[in-house]
Structure to design on (254 residues):
């Protein structure tokens, strides 16, 4: 079956403007343009749009989605299996948060007791699961299962105050890095502050710190498209700027 841009938009629940934008950036081209100048989409385009929307639902940026779906090695069947696993993981996360809310309600009503640590278990587990889903394979390949498992356990064992400090540092790293990037100088005092804040943030999950590991991690932010997309989301080049700042900070500038 074939669809015009308007009918496909209605079918998928997206705007015609979105579909036209997908065409412009080359992520979803119509099968053909008819004699009246209308975009016409066939079954292959419908299937690709479904894949795009799956990836968007999982929080993946359009730049990364384009690289995935236009790759010669892209397999729709394999992608669907991966979507299924990711959605099941998300359901587990939601179930854990629901359980946490229910226990909190029971505690407030005097039907049970709840420690401060238990109040944040759902949030910490979600953070761990999100990181595993997005970057687990690369991190485990680079640092090994034991190191990653210890890091996850350290996060689980955090106190309420420690967890709050991690989130605060994460926010401060982002804001300081954004300001430092405007200077264009990774060796500036502001850029070095961002690198130091990044180190402080890492120490809440790493069992031990080394300048080499810090520098290697910053290089992975550049090499891995998902990390790069995360840091470059608001300002292109931020991942490379952070890497350069960290290499200067650690004394391992290349």
């Amino acid at each position: 079956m074939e669809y015009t841009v308007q009918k496909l938009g209605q079918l998928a629940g997206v705007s015609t403007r979105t579909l036209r934008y997908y065409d412009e950036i080359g992520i979803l081209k119509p099968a053909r343009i008819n004699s009246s100048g209308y975009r016409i989409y066939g079954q292959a385009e419908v299937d690709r749009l479904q894949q795009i929307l799956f990836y968007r639902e999982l929080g993946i940026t359009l730049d990364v989605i384009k690289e995935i779906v236009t790759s010669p090695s892209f397999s729709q069947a394999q992608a669907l299996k991966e979507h299924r696993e990711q959605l099941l993981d998300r359901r587990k996360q939601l179930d854990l948060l629901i359980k946490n809310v229910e226990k909190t309600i029971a505690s407030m009503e005097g039907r049970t007791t709840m420690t401060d640590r238990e109040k944040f278990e759902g949030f910490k587990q979600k953070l761990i699961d999100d990181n595993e889903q997005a970057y687990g394979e690369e991190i485990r390949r680079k640092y090994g299962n034991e190191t990653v498992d210890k890091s996850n356990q350290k996060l689980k064992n955090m106190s309420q105050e420690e967890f709050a400090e991690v989130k605060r540092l994460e926010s401060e790293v982002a804001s300081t890095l954004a300001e430092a990037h405007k200077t264009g100088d990774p060796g500036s005092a502001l850029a070095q502050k961002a690198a130091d804040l990044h180190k402080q943030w890492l120490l809440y999950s790493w069992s031990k710190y080394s300048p080499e590991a810090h520098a290697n991690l910053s290089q992975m932010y550049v090499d891995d498209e998902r990390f790069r997309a995360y840091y470059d989301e608001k300002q292109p080049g931020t991942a490379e700027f952070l890497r350069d700042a960290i290499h200067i900070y650690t004394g391992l500038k290349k």
